[in-house]
Design brief:
2,3-Dihydroxybiphenyl 1,2-Dioxygenase, domain 1, 4-stranded mixed beta sheet, globular, single chain, 17% helix
Length: 169
């Protein structure tokens, strides 16, 4: 039986599988995604593409220079990807990556408490936006009186986040 176009709702278990980025310099992109953020390299296609993973998946991030080798960054005020969002399992994991970024003197473009999550923002070496975040447990998500989510953008206490490093795993 075919579905009615007006009645379709995407299945609950659906998720975003991976992102594939055009980069200008593959080795520079690998230094960011593999060496700084800690993704594992799963395979290379010669010197043209790389695939990276967290936790043994075939790939969460694809990088290629097929149509972009040595190209300038995409314009900030045009259509395209706003950012890639990478979710960490715990608040402590977000604190660990914040500490790595600070130790590497890698610049953040922002940070925020969104009520449902806490997030760090930065750009990869090609100027692609990257959000690193963790979700609060669903039962802690703020809600409006009508039950809809109350997402907001407030200052994230980075020092408080870093105190997560003082706790044991």
């Amino acid at each position: 039986m075919r579905t009615n176009m007006n009645d379709y709702i995407i299945p609950n278990a659906t998720h975003i599988g991976h992102i594939h980025l055009k980069v200008s310099n593959l080795e520079r992109a690998l230094k960011f995604y593999r060496d700084l953020l800690g993704f594992e390299l799963t395979t290379m296609y010669g010197d043209q593409a790389a695939f990276l993973s967290a936790g043994g998946y075939h790939h969460h991030i694809g990088l290629n220079v097929w149509n972009s080798k040595d190209a300038p960054p995409a314009p900030a005020h045009g259509v395209g990807l706003y950012h890639t969002a990478i979710v960490y399992p715990t608040r402590r994991d977000l604190a660990v990556i914040l500490d790595r970024l600070l130790q590497a003197n890698y610049p953040l473009t922002g940070s925020a408490d969104h009520g449902v999550s806490e997030a760090l923002y930065l750009n990869d070496p090609d100027g692609n936006g990257v959000e690193l975040y963790w979700d609060r447990p669903k039962e802690q998500w703020p809600q409006h009186p009508d039950g809809s989510l109350e997402m907001y953008t407030r200052r994230l206490d980075l020092e408080g986040l870093l105190k997560e490093l003082d706790t044991t795993k």
